[in-house]
Amino acid sequence: MKLNVDGLLVYFPYDYIYPEQFTYMLELKRSLDAKGHCVLEMPSGTGKTVSLLSLIVAYLRTNPVDVTKLVYCSRTVPELEKVIEELKSLMKYYEQELGEQPTILGLALSSRKNLCIHPRVSKEPTGKEVDAGCQGLTASYIRTKHHYDSSVPLCSYFEAFDDNGRDAPIDPGVYNLDDLKDIGQERGWCPYFLARYTIMHANIVVYSYHYLLDPKIAELVSKDLPKTSVVVFDEAHNIDNVCIDSLSVNITRRTLDRGEGNLEYLKGSIERSVPAFVYCKYIL
Q1: With contact defined as beta carbons under 8 Å apart, do 173 and 105 qualify?
Q2: Paired strand residues for 137
Q3: Burial, 208: exposed, middle or buried (Cβ in 10 Å; 0-12, 13-18, 19+)?
Q4: Are 52 and 71 in contact (CB under 8 A)?
Q5: pLDDT in tens, 248-262
Q6: Phi-psi label, residue 244: left if phi above 0, alpha if psi -120 to 50, beta otherwise
Q7: DSSP bridge partners of 2
C-alpha cells in the first residue's frame, strides 16, 4: 500500500499496517526532518524493521541531497539476513508499483568467516583462523614476496578483484551474504573485499555494530562514510555490551608469564650492558 506520512509518499509492501507502525514512521520522519537523534521502541513482532526500511527508503528517494545512505547496524548474522530479506521484499514491491527496478544498491557486510570462498581458508573452523589465513595470502608484504618469489602463495580471488573488481561495480539490487558469494564464484572475485569496497557507494548497508563501534574495525571499514548517512542501531539496548566488548582486552596467565619473562630478560640485558657503558665513558 501507499501511505502519506507527514507529506512523504511511503511504499509499504503489505496490505495492512498497524497503527503503531504508522506512528513509528511518523516519529522517524520528524527526526529525519530535524536532522536529530531519536530512540524508538516497538513490541517484538509488530513490524518495526519493515516500517523503518519503508520510511527511510522513501526519504532517501525524496531527499537525495540531505540523506545519501542508510547504515543499518544489527547484532547477529541471522538478524542481518532478516533485514536484507525485508529490504528485498520492499524493493520487489517498488518494482511492482513503478514498473521498473529502483536504482538502489543495498548489501550486507559480514566477517571473512561468513564471506570467504577460498577452498582452503574458508574451511578453517574459527573466525580468527580464517582472518589469519586470509591475511597470510593478501597482506602487502606477502604480495611483495610473491613478486620476487612466485612460489609464495596468494589468494587468486583477491588478486582478481584487485585487478578488475573496482572498475566493474555490481548492479543495483539487494544482496545478502549468499548473493555476494555467488557473485564471487561467478566472477572469481573475493566476496569480502567486494563488499568492503561496495559499501562506499551503496545506498543501504547492513552490518554488525562492531563496524561502527569498535575503533580498530571502524578505522578500516567505516571512516569514509558520508556525514549525510542515517545510522540505525537495531536492538540498541545491546550497544553498551558491544562497546565494553570492543574496548576490553582478555589477559591470560600465559600472557602474564611471558611478559614477566620478557621483563627479566630486558633487565638482564641492561645489567650486562652497564659495565661496558661505564668503561667506554671512562676511556672517553
Answers
A1: yes
A2: none
A3: buried
A4: no
A5: 888 899 999 999 999
A6: alpha
A7: 11
